[in-house]
TrEMBL record:
Similarity comment: Belongs to the binding-protein-dependent transport system permease family.
Protein name per the record: Carbohydrate ABC transporter permease
Keywords from the UniProt entry: Cell membrane, Membrane, Transmembrane, Transmembrane helix, Transport
Alphabetical list of PANTHER family matching this protein: ABC TRANSPORTER PERMEASE PROTEIN MG189-RELATED-RELATED, POLYGALACTURONAN_RHAMNOGALACTURONAN TRANSPORT SYSTEM PERMEASE PROTEIN YTCP
Amino acid sequence: MKPTKGQRIFAVFNYILLTLLALLCLLPMLNIVALSFSSRNMVNAGAVTFLPKEFTISSYLYMLQKSGLIPALLVTVKRLVLGVVLNLIMTISVAYPLSKSEKLFKSRKFYVAFFLITMIFNGGIIPTYLVIKQFHMLDTIWALILPNSVTMFYVLLMLNFFRGIPDEIEEAAVVDGAGWLTILLKIYLPLSLPSLATVTLFIIVGHWNEWFDGMIYNNHTDNYPLMTFLQYHVLNFKTSDLRPEQIAANPALADLEGRSIKSAGIVLCTLPVLVFYPFLQKYFVTGITVGSVKG
C-alpha cells in the first residue's frame, strides 16, 4: 500500500526525533573520547569539543602503567566468570519451577510473592555488610558475587520465556520418559537462547560496572575489581600529586590533566562492553520482549 501524506510526515518526524536522540547519546561520548586524547593545555583552555586537540596518548599510557591495574583486571575477569555462571544457574533454577502451573507446583504463589518482595525491599547496606562479615567473606571474591546471585528482574525474563514455550513439547517429552532436569537441559534451554543471551548481557554489564561493593567489602586495595580500582586511584587523580622525579623519569606525565585521565578511564571501562555487545545484540530484542504479548 502506498503511504498516505500523513504517514510520510509522521515517518519524517520519527527519523528527525530518533536522529536527535542518537546525537544526544553519541555527542557526549565523542567529547569524552576527544578529551582522553587531547593535551593538557587544550583541555584546560576548554578548546576540546568532539575532536582531539594536540593529539596525545599520555593519559592511556599513565593508566596502563599504573601499578595494580592488571591485578584489578584479573579480579574483574574472575568475578565475571564466576558471577555469570552462578547467576545463570540460580536464575534458571528459580525461573523454571515458577514457570509451571499451580497444578504442578502448588506453592508457586507463595514463592512468587517471596521473590517479588525482594524487588521492593532489601536489607540495606549495613545489615548486608554485617551478614557478609559474619560469613567471613570480606576480602574475598564471593562478597562480590553471592549477594546479588539472584535478581528477580532476570528471573522474570526467563520465567516469561519458559512460559512461552508450548506445553505440547513438554508433554511429548514426558510421554517419552524424560524427567524434569532432562526437559530443562535438552528442551527449554536450547529454545531459550535469546532470553539467555539477554540475561547474560545484563549480568556481564552489572558485574563489570559495579564498583561500590568492591570498596565496602574489601579492606585491601589489592582485592579491588577494576571499576573500584579506577574510581579509587584514577578518577581521584590530581596533577599536583605527580612528583618532579616522576615527570623527569617520564616527560609524558607533564601533559596529564585530571579530566583527560577520567575520560580515558571511562573509555577503557566502556570499550570491552561495546566490543562484546554486538555478539549478543541480535538476541536482545527477542529476549527482552518475549512473553509481553499473550494470545
